[in-house]
Design a protein that fits this description.
It comes from Tenacibaculum skagerrakense. By secondary structure, the protein is of the alpha+beta class. It contains two helices and eight strands, in the order βαββββαβββ.
């Protein structure tokens, strides 16, 4: 089994405009796409570094402090790019790692699934 590369880092911020300014104006990330998800009252900002997609910045109304919930302030998950999701899912489950079902990203059409590390850090495998 081989992880191909880091795909992206997702961050939930407590103040969207402040974080958007920090990542774009201060750190110099480029905006690839900004989507307002009305049903969640949430922004999703896709940020690039040197033309490479690197960060998803999310806003949610009144996010809780980080516990182990997927939509809390702070780091949301780590995503790794892989070539075959089914093989990875079988491999992880054969090593007693509980995996969520494979889903399709509504904006990109790409497939992915999540699992947790031993400390419950959410990890995503994203098919390339």
């Amino acid at each position: 089994m081989k992880i191909e590369k880091l795909h992206h880092v997702a961050i939930i911020c407590s103040n969207y405009e402040v974080s958007k300014r920090f990542y774009t104006k201060v750190l110099g990330f480029e905006i690839q796409q900004e989507v307002f998800r009305e049903e969640r009252a949430s922004y999703k900002l896709d940020l690039c570094l040197n033309g490479t997609y690197v960060i998803e910045l999310f806003s949610f109304p009144n996010p809780p402090k980080r516990a182990s919930f997927p939509e809390a302030t702070g780091l949301r998950h780590i995503a790794f790019a892989v070539k075959n999701l089914e093989e990875w899912k079988v491999y992880l489950e054969s090593n007693e790692v509980s995996c969520q079902e494979i889903r399709v990203d509504e904006f990109t059409g790409k497939r992915f699934f999540f699992f947790n590390d031993p400390d419950n850090l959410p990890i995503e495998l994203y098919e390339i």
